[in-house]
Write a structure and sequence with these properties.
The protein is built from 8 helices and 10 strands. By secondary structure, it is an alpha/beta fold. The strands form 3 sheets. It has a 5-stranded parallel β-sheet, sandwiched between helices. A 3-stranded antiparallel β-sheet has the order 2-1-4, with helices on one face. The protein has a two-stranded antiparallel sheet with strand order 9-10. β1 and β2 form a beta hairpin. The radius of gyration is 18 Å and the shape is globular.
Length: 265
């Protein structure tokens, strides 16, 4: 199966700071693929390079067979993006934001049905500043999905939300994938890994901000599990040298992969 996203040897520096070092990954159609790691690990920088919003210093990227920089205009019609930090005017109404985003694309979905599916139907006339944190995130998801993209990028989607709002968002993410859209997301929350993705790649960034490429990818129908070479569970996945995760039987969720990051001292 040909991947819809392919990244090879991606690197990005900001002056002397190495934000991303030698990242390689593949994302396949119908997956919920996640990058997980502590804050500052380079997850957002990686995602922005893949989206075409940031120029990498090295490496090659292909998204839906397109180069994110050379084919930027064509790619934007086929992907949706939810930024880590997004804001709208305080007094813009939900329907006005949706109408504005509709005007940017040649093909759009039934926006009334989209708002209803995301639980925002009753908030059509509400100002942005009156929405709760979870409602704002659902609105940004709606804006990312308004043109029915083939791939959607979700960056730190549930950061700052209460547990109930997080669970609601996780359910929405699964629903997006079930409707045929490939999902690429980032998070530093372990519970988010257990709740949503079918494939994860982790980073170990204790010192060098280097992403450890998995030594192997392999399919499995083993029970859910997480393991660490240390005696106690780590405070963050960045401290965990070896891990594996599965969400559900392959028949129910589509492709599930396990990652075994290389052990470091």
């Amino acid at each position: 199966m040909k991947p819809v996203i392919s990244v090879s040897n991606l690197g990005k520096r900001y002056g002397r700071v190495v934000a991303v070092d030698d990242v390689s990954l593949e994302v396949f159609e119908g997956e919920i693929f996640g990058l997980i790691g502590p804050n500052g690990a380079g997850k957002t920088t990686t995602m922005e390079c893949v989206e075409g919003n940031r120029v990498p210093d090295k490496g090659t990227i292909s998204v839906l067979g397109l180069d994110p920089r050379r084919d930027a205009n064509a790619l934007r019609q086929r992907i949706g993006v939810q930024q880590q930090e997004a804001h709208l005017q305080k007094r813009i109404k939900v329907w006005e934001a949706v109408d504005l985003w509709r005007s940017l694309y040649t093909r759009v979905v039934d926006t009334d049905a989209l708002l209803a599916r995301l639980g925002l139907e009753a908030k059509r006339n509400a100002w942005f500043m009156t929405l709760s944190g979870g409602q704002k995130q659902r609105l940004f998801i709606a804006l990312a999905l308004i043109h029915e993209p083939e791939v959607v990028f979700l960056d730190e989607l549930t950061t700052g939300l209460d547990p109930q709002a997080r669970r609601t968002i996780w359910g929405l993410v699964t629903g997006i994938r079930d409707r045929g859209t490939t999902v690429f997301l980032t998070t530093h929350l372990m519970e988010e890994a257990n709740a949503s993705a079918t494939a994860w790649q982790s980073s170990n960034t204790d010192a060098s901000l280097r992403w450890e490429r998995p030594t192997s990818w392999y399919g499995s129908t083993a029970p859910n599990r997480q393991s660490c070479s240390r005696a106690m569970m780590p405070m963050s996945l960045g401290e965990c040298r070896r891990w594996a995760w599965s969400s559900a039987p392959r028949e129910a969720r589509g492709p599930t992969r396990f990652a075994a990051p290389a052990t470091t001292s």
